Amino acid sequence: LNRSLRGFGSTIFAEMSALAVKTGAINLGQGFPDTDGPESVREAAVKALRDGRGNQYPPGPGVPELRTAITEHQQRFYGLTFDPDTEVLVTAGATEAIAASMLALLEPGDEVIAFEPFYDSYAASIAMAGATRVPLTLRAPDFRPDLDALRDAITPRTRLLLLNSPHNPTGMVLTRDEVTAIAALAVEHDLLVVTDEVYEHVVFDGEHVPLISLPGMRDRTVSISSSGKTFSFTGWKVGWVTASASLVAAVRTAKQYLTYVSAGPFQYAVAEALRLPGSYFAGFRDDLRGKRDLLSDGLAAAGFEVHRPQGTYFVTTDITPLGEKDGPAFCLGLPERCGVVAVPNAVFYDDPDAGRTLVRFAFCKRHDVLEEAASRLRRLA
Ligand code: PMP
Ligand code: GLN
Known about the structure:
By secondary structure, the chain is an alpha/beta fold. It has two domains: 3-30 and 279-380, Aspartate Aminotransferase, domain 1, CATH 3.90.1150.10; 39-274, Aspartate Aminotransferase, domain 2 (3-Layer(aba) Sandwich), CATH 3.40.640. Helices cover 40% and strands 15% of the residues. The chain has helices spanning 12-23, 39-50, 64-78, 93-105, 121-128, 147-153, 176-188, 227-230, 245-256, 265-274, 278-301, 327-338, 367-377, and strands at residues 26-27, 88-92, 111-116, 132-137, 158-164, 192-196, 221-226, 238-242, 305-307, 314-318, 340-341, 343-344, 358-362. The strands form three sheets. The chain has a seven-stranded mixed beta sheet, sandwiched between helices. A four-stranded antiparallel beta sheet has the order 9-10-13-12. Strands 1-11 form a two-stranded parallel ribbon. Helix 7 links the parallel strand 5 (158-164) and strand 6. Helix 2 packs antiparallel against helix 10, helix 4 packs parallel to helix 5 (121-128) and helix 11 (278-301) packs parallel to helix 13 (367-377). The longest helix is centred in the C-terminal third of the chain and has 24 residues, at 278-301. The chain starts with 11 loop residues before the first helix and ends with a helix. The structure holds 4'-deoxy-4'-aminopyridoxal-5'-phosphate and glutamine (GLN).
């Protein structure tokens, strides 16, 4: 293993999902839904396969139908206009979009400021690009970013901000004021911004404000999203980038030599998904809101301190009231103690002590599964 990847080993999600399989515990660790997305979208994938659409290499930037649907989505939800030919790139999930962005936009020695705790691929992608990550720690209880600390973290070597809102794992959603302030800093210091917006449709309190919609940001922001979360098809790995033509061209160059193109038939299906009526998106969010409340209440009843999320399908808890001090050890023992798997937030920090007592539970699961998990967790109380 080369030096840039040393220490990255296997991801916490693979580890904890393997533990769930081994112990038969309810898996509230890795974030994937236990119910597939809409039937009509599945049918569209089957139809594409049968009709021979996308069974051979699709175009590098993505099939035109999907690129157009992505631009229509950006227009419908945010009033943003993109050219489907030059300002959209389809990727193998948001994960590839993040990695390709880092490889395309960073020079060795550049600094990248990212919220900590961070989704685990950020650190690895920054490292693969030979750059240095500079964490901006989000702190309990509400995990709001400290904008003065952000300003202080910017140095002459800072090249870009890698932002995630709604934020995994804390569930924090940036407010319009915060997004505005961050955009002003980016303009002032001439920074690029890469925004991971995969949970854009999972906001319970507040609203999702794409950074690229702010003044001065249109040509310096790479906006990333994915069908995995919004349509509950995490296995399809269809993500995308929307940005200016020159930024898309840069990311496309890197993507070209990572995967060349993304799998074809699913792209046609995701194009259909993006055109679902507003009621789909609202229903998806409202269903998850009920699940958030169900699991948050269950965790509180079991004695956890609960940081109820504003968005995403994760709830972060503190295990201190249970007399526990060490999240990683707690999560390793949890399947044995009560048949539930969770993820220790400590793995998402550079300094694991910063998140030592925090533990994340995913609630993108059926009601009966969440109820059973809540009742098992009450054994801890
Ligand atoms: N970013 C965040 C914040 C995520 O939680 C995930 C989820 N798994 C991803 C990116 C990756 O998305 P995809 O599965 O589309 O690669
Ligand atoms: N994003 C999901 C999570 O945070 C899982 C993604 C993955 O397994 N890489 O749980």
